[in-house]
Amino acid sequence: MAVGELARDLPVSRPAVSQHLKVLRSAGLVSDRAAGTRRLYHAEPAGIAALRAELDVFWDQALAAYENIVEQEEQAK
């Protein structure tokens, strides 16, 4: 989608959407291509998969830490 199309359905300005897309592009989560005078953006599956893998590790660690806290509290009773 083009920036204007994305911004139309979001509660932020078009320049804000452009800035977010710039960050997402630098992170490898989206890419863009020229289409006349517009730039069309699309999700990068490899970038999304890498983000998903990082989030899975984060949540696994967070849940393990929470489990340890709960177990310690149960043992203290």
Short description:
Helices cover 66% and strands 16% of the residues.
Description:
With 77 residues, the protein is of the alpha+beta class. It is 66% helix and 16% strand. It is built from three helices and two strands. The chain has a two-stranded antiparallel ribbon with strand order 1-2. A hairpin with a 2-residue loop joins β1 and β2. The relative contact order is 0.11. The mean pLDDT is 95.
Keywords:
77 residues, two-stranded antiparallel sheet, 3 helices, 66% helix
Mean pLDDT: 95
Strand order of the largest sheet: 1-2
Order of helices and strands: HHEEH
Spatial separation of the terminal alpha carbons: 56 Å
**Taking Cα atoms only, what radius of gyration do you get, to the nearest Å?**
20 Å
Q: Major beta sheet, specifics?
A: 2 strands, antiparallel
What portion of residues belong to β-strands?
15-25%
The backbone outline, from C-alpha atoms, is elongated
Determine the structural class based on helices, strands and strand pairing. alpha+beta
| Secondary structure: helix percent | 55-70%
Poorly predicted parts: none
